[in-house]
Amino acid sequence: MIKRLLVVESPGKVKKLSQILGSDWKVLASCGHIRELSNEGDDSLGFVMDGGNVRCNYVPRDQRAKETIQKLKSAVRQVDEVVLATDPDREGETIAWHLKETLGLREPKRVIYTEITASAVQSAIANPRKLDQNLIGAGLCRDCLDKLVGYKGSPLVWALNNGAKSVGRVQSATLHLICQRENEILTFVPQDYWSVWVDYAEGFRAFYKGTVDSAKDAADQETETHDDAKVGNSPETPESKRVLSEAEATRLVEEAQRHPHQVIHFEGKIVNRQPPPPFTTSSLQQAAGSKLRFAPDKTMIVAQKLYEAGLITYMRTDSVMLSPEFCASARKWLEQNDPQNVPQQVAKHRSSKSAQEAHEAIRPTDVFRPSVQLRSELPDDEFNLYVMIWKRSIASQCRAAQLRKTLVITQSGSLLWSARGQVIEFYGYARYWNNLSKDSILPSLQQGQALKLENAGHEQKQTQPPPRYSEPKLVQLMERKGIGRPSTYAPTVATLKKRNYVELKKDHLQPTALGLEVDAFLLKALPDLLEAEFTAKMEDALDAISEGKNSWQHYLTSWNQNYFVPALSKAKTVVASSSTGKANVITERKYETSKTRCPECKNFLAKIPSSKVKKKYFLKCTKGCENVVLFWSDFNKTWKPPRTKTVQAENQQKPPVKITTYPCPVCKKPLEEYSYIKEGQSKTMLRCSDPQSRKDNKHKDVAYFSTQKGWWSPKFGEILKT
């Protein structure tokens, strides 16, 4: 008999947890958040700030949430005990509080686990705790902050009348990073420079380094970092010290040809490259983006499925800590399969300051699980992401890689030349996570050795603008600047694309004309909200609330009174001053030009982005022909004006209704033949002849389509022709 109820967030976990807990338990899912702030009160905020207090009015999110609440209430009445097992983070704790409030639970038991395995779940059940009021406070504060900024700030951009939909606490700061980079690219002025080099008969190329009597350069130490957002392992193309004129480059080549060359410094040393840490949410999104070409939101969807299947630990984390049990298991795997890679001491990794150390990094739940078995069980995307997580976790427990790095400095006259080499002596962790550059071998040389010059030359180059951010690079930048938290990186990037503020072009994020307009306006109206440091301080404040160092109600009311109210007041004057030039703002927008000309003025039409049409844009004349708008026709394979239907034309096109002798399967009234046009072709179907009946839900499936055998309905089957 069922005595206990476990409530989780995701329905994907129910089956696995039910198998683990057995017949004494019933497992149900809340399907994420069941409540949200209502749209009542001032500015539809759903909460009221009264002095230093905040009163929130929460309502069910939608019809599905109402049904879920009723289902949960019914289940609560049938059991002796309710245990809340929502996700182990701030959002999960807040959802648990909403469940407590909605279901009328007095002191519910709260359990957390970071992997859906029998041992982890049973251990969590055996060690319940109370709800964490500090985490709940931070969750409620974030909820109110986001709605406050969104609902009070968004009307500012609506006034621009350019299609802008929203302003967001994290969203707008992230958009600003993308627009800043775009402005850097637009204002970039390229400069020519020359790279000067010499080739030696001994088999290597060296690059101009400077002169003997010039000031000693600071030691150019090579620093290698684990960059998960980087695509590929190719090293940067070596160059000389930049020479700013062709005449100077030619002079250096001529001097190199006049003087003998010899080695004045030869250095070879073994360098240890420590293994990378296991994955956090951010680094997982970066690596999946660069290696698997996953968008951040896709990475999280696939990781969620792996977590629900019990294959990996919880995928929203900023900690790089691993449990002692996993470390022991990984070490055992290495001892059995790769004993040379077992380190005396595992490399130490530091989490970010804000990381919750009670959480673990993302890792497999069972390092010994055969991948051959999983290959047949999992879709390709899930299998590939799992293997990537497995390899990174094992790599973090391996020995360091050993690289033999070589530096050669040669001299000809007063000129110095340098060359670098690298050979991998021991792969170590790179057997599983290879982020090492390929070997670049230099010959064995001795100090004072004379060299034979084979060739000398220079190559003209040009400085390049900074690149646009790829999605992995943007996530990396958001993490480094403290914009958002693990749970917000993916949805923020997805929202910017959905709002048509940015678009993905050749795997890089580029702001649209709309995005640039919104950012430029907010830079005048709410400049603080765009600054990464300002947004990061808000995240730090939420972290402080999570740790019990501050009252969430005090922080929210103070932030609103001391900053947001005055800032909004100032922003509204910017809106008022820009409203007179609103038309100019719109006409100045730069759209991509099509190859199709306006039928009236013969100018090329502009491509107007739109998510509502299949081609993602339509054509419009921006040169003054107001009524010229064209849409793509798949049927005609050409651009066509929208079809206009007058009532008279409609009546002329509609054939008379033909009533059949076939009865409606729901109300028994006769069916009628209904003609319509789909994708340019005329089609006919049978439907109920009563217009009022057709409006109710019972009739929604009453539709028979013409086949060779007769009329056929997906729900009611065939009506044979007589």
From TrEMBL:
Catalytic machinery residues: Y314 (o-(5'-phospho-dna)-tyrosine intermediate)
Record site feature (Interaction with DNA), residues: H33, R142, D146, Y151, W158, R316, R499
GO molecular function terms attached to this record: DNA topoisomerase type I (single strand cut, ATP-independent) activity
Pfam families xref list: Topoisom_bac, Toprim
UniProt EC number: 5.6.2.1
Catalyzed chemical reaction(s): ATP-independent breakage of single-stranded DNA, followed by passage and rejoining
UniProt keyword DNA repair, yes or no: no
Signal peptide residues on this chain, from the entry's feature table: none
The Topo IA-type catalytic domain, residue ranges: 132-568
Similarity comment: family membership: Belongs to the type IA topoisomerase family.
Region annotated Disordered, chain positions: 218-242
Record-annotated Toprim domain positions: 3-120
Region feature (Interaction with DNA): 166-171
Highest rank taxon of the organism: Bacteria
Record's keyword terms, sorted: DNA-binding, Isomerase, Magnesium, Metal-binding, Topoisomerase
Regions crossing the membrane: none
Protein name per UniProt: DNA topoisomerase 1
Keyword NAD listed: no
Its biological purpose: Releases the supercoiling and torsional tension of DNA, which is introduced during the DNA replication and transcription, by transiently cleaving and rejoining one strand of the DNA duplex. Introduces a single-strand break via transesterification at a target site in duplex DNA. The scissile phosphodiester is attacked by the catalytic tyrosine of the enzyme, resulting in the formation of a DNA-(5'-phosphotyrosyl)-enzyme intermediate and the expulsion of a 3'-OH DNA strand. The free DNA strand then undergoes passage around the unbroken strand, thus removing DNA supercoils.
Originating species: Nostoc favosum CHAB5714
Start-end of Basic and acidic residues biased regions: 218-230
